[in-house]
TrEMBL record:
<feature type="active site">
    <location>
        <position position="6"/>
    </location>
</feature>
<protein>
    <recommendedName>
        <fullName>ATP-dependent protease subunit HslV</fullName>
        <ecNumber>3.4.25.2</ecNumber>
    </recommendedName>
</protein>
<feature type="binding site">
    <location>
        <position position="163"/>
    </location>
    <ligand>
        <name>Na(+)</name>
    </ligand>
</feature>
<dbReference type="InterPro" id="IPR001353">
    <property type="entry name" value="Proteasome_sua/b"/>
</dbReference>
<comment type="subunit">
    <text>A double ring-shaped homohexamer of HslV is capped on each side by a ring-shaped HslU homohexamer. The assembly of the HslU/HslV complex is dependent on binding of ATP.</text>
</comment>
<dbReference type="InterPro" id="IPR029055">
    <property type="entry name" value="Ntn_hydrolases_N"/>
</dbReference>
<keyword id="KW-0378">Hydrolase</keyword>
<comment type="similarity">
    <text>Belongs to the peptidase T1B family. HslV subfamily.</text>
</comment>
<dbReference type="Pfam" id="PF00227">
    <property type="entry name" value="Proteasome"/>
</dbReference>
<keyword id="KW-0645">Protease</keyword>
<keyword id="KW-0479">Metal-binding</keyword>
<keyword id="KW-0021">Allosteric enzyme</keyword>
<feature type="binding site">
    <location>
        <position position="166"/>
    </location>
    <ligand>
        <name>Na(+)</name>
    </ligand>
</feature>
<keyword id="KW-0915">Sodium</keyword>
<keyword id="KW-0888">Threonine protease</keyword>
<feature type="binding site">
    <location>
        <position position="169"/>
    </location>
    <ligand>
        <name>Na(+)</name>
    </ligand>
</feature>
<dbReference type="InterPro" id="IPR022281">
    <property type="entry name" value="ATP-dep_Prtase_HsIV_su"/>
</dbReference>
Length: 179
């Protein structure tokens, strides 16, 4: 059995990036071990946001590797994302890590996976984790009808909706903003 962190949502619009995540950590299939985990962090001198879903220890290892890739690329997020995904897919140890990362700067938003995927969504809205599809649907709905709603509010409301639906997601939110 492993510890899992869930539901992270990110958006980029008009030179602003926001990533938010809930605080629940689940052990196995049915035990909530923590309610106030922080799954979203600032990286590379506060210029990049990153969130994770999946195995907590694996995600923290990936954060360290990703920060190293950001340093090597002098903060170039697309280059660092590709470099991490390439290493994650080909390195024996990293290849066993079970987590997804959602990373953003003020221009880009990527989902990174251990299968080598580097996905930049067309609408600059992405979510990962068990409640990710609920949060994503809510964010897209808000974005389509509330063009003036601040991104932080869209992310918070969308994560709250996911928490109302997904048993692996709670209402203790951490939201980080750039720009």
């Amino acid at each position: 059995m492993e510890f899992h962190g869930t539901t992270v949502l990110g958006m980029v619009r008009d030179g602003k990036a926001v990533i938010g995540g809930d605080g629940q950590v689940t052990f196995g299939q049915n035990t909530v071990m923590k309610h106030t985990a922080v799954k979203v962090r600032r990286l590379y001198h506060g210029k990049v946001l990153a969130g994770f879903a999946g195995s907590v220890a694996d995600a923290l290892t990936l954060f360290e590797h990703f920060e190293g890739k950001l340093e090597e690329s002098h903060g170039n997020l697309p280059r660092a994302a590709v470099a991490l995904s390439r290493e994650w897919r080909t390195d024996r140890m990293l290849g066993k890590l079970e987590a997804l990362l959602l990373v953003a700067d003020q221009e880009h938003l990527f989902i990174l996976s251990g299968t080598g995927e580097v996905i930049e969504p067309d609408d600059f809205i992405a979510a990962i984790g068990s409640g990710g599809s609920y949060a994503l649907a809510a964010a897209r709905a808000f974005a389509s009808v509330e063009q003036t709603m601040p991104l932080e509010e869209v992310v918070r409301r969308s994560l709250d909706i996911a928490a109302d639906i997904c048993i692996y997601t709670n209402h203790h939110l951490t939201v980080e903003t750039l720009g």
